UniProtKB/TrEMBL annotation:
It comes from the Bacteria. Keywords: Exonuclease, Hydrolase, Nuclease. GO terms for molecular function: 3'-5' exonuclease activity; nucleic acid binding. Pfam families: RNase_T (PF00929). Residues 1-26 are annotated as: Disordered. Gene3D superfamilies: Ribonuclease H-like superfamily/Ribonuclease H. The lineage of its organism: Bacteria, Bacillati, Actinomycetota, Actinomycetes, Actinomycetales. This is Exonuclease rnase t/dna polymerase iii.
Length: 249
């Protein structure tokens, strides 16, 4: 069998609403009204994207209004002999990862579902840093590309008075339900809830466009992702969620 074809996401037509400037200084009109969100949370073996590994992915695909469209999660096997890191935080031990796919075995699915959306995370610098390092190493992301992102942690105090920007505290302040903290899918769902809360507060204040409009504009044009659609469809059956999580919802 020859190599599978890989795809870049096709750029969307530029229309309506925002007025960013091109590199040449000319105004461009960009439609962000249909741009959705990919809310992601990762559990990892440590804090360094260069030295540590992803061991769990939780992904929530949300529409332009923040409503959840689809979710999935999977454990990720980082390879033989790799220390799983702080079990006291993420609750995972090496035996939990036996039989789970390697990141390369779900990378096309992950990239397909990230493409065309603004990537959202609570402390996006951390999660997107790991995604950039890992997916770049698998040739699923162009080297040096900056992934369009929204950080629910950085924006917390713009939308509410919270004593801490930690995820649990933000959720308590906003009245957002959070399940098992440091379980990737539960934390991704909680971050998606914060995103919807921020949207509601912004509407009440009459803030238009939303505070993260630049990230939405960038998501329209971003074509740094690279994936095989055939592989992505096949990888949907390879997901191994943590016990208690669904596979695809």
């Amino acid at each position: 069998m020859g190599p599978m074809p890989f795809y870049h996401r096709t750029r969307r037509p530029l229309r309506q609403t925002l007025q960013p400037r091109s590199a040449a200084g000319a105004p461009e009109t960009v439609d962000v009204s249909r741009v959705g969100y990919a809310v992601v949370d990762l559990e990892t073996t440590g804090l360094s994207p260069a030295a540590d590994s992803i061991i769990e992915i939780g992904l929530v695909l949300a529409g332009p209004d923040g409503a959840v469209e689809r979710t999935w999660s999977t454990l990720v096997n980082p390879g033989t002999g790799v220390d799983v890191g702080p079990t006291y935080i993420h609750g995972l031990v090496a035996e939990d990862l036996v039989g789970a796919p390697a990141l390369a075995d779900v990378a096309d699915l992950l990239v397909r579902d990230l493409a065309g959306r603004a990537v959202v995370a609570h402390n996006a610098r951390f999660d997107v840093g790991f995604l950039t390092q890992a997916l770049g190493g698998l040739d699923r992301l162009e080297r040096g590309a900056r992934v369009p992102r929204v950080c629910t942690m950085e924006m917390a105090r713009h939308f509410m008075a919270t004593p801490s920007r930690r995820l649990v505290t933000c959720c308590e302040t906003a009245g957002v339900e959070i399940g098992r903290h440091h379980t990737a899918l539960d934390d991704a769902l909680a971050s998606a809830g914060l995103l919807r809360h921020y949207m509601a507060v912004g509407r009440e204040r009459g803030e238009e466009p939303v505070a993260w409009s630049r990230s939405l504009t960038e998501a329209v044009a971003f074509n740094g992702w690279r994936w095989s659609e055939t592989a992505a469809r096949a990888q949907e059956s390879r997901l191994v969620p943590r016990r208690g999580d669904g596979v695809l919802r």
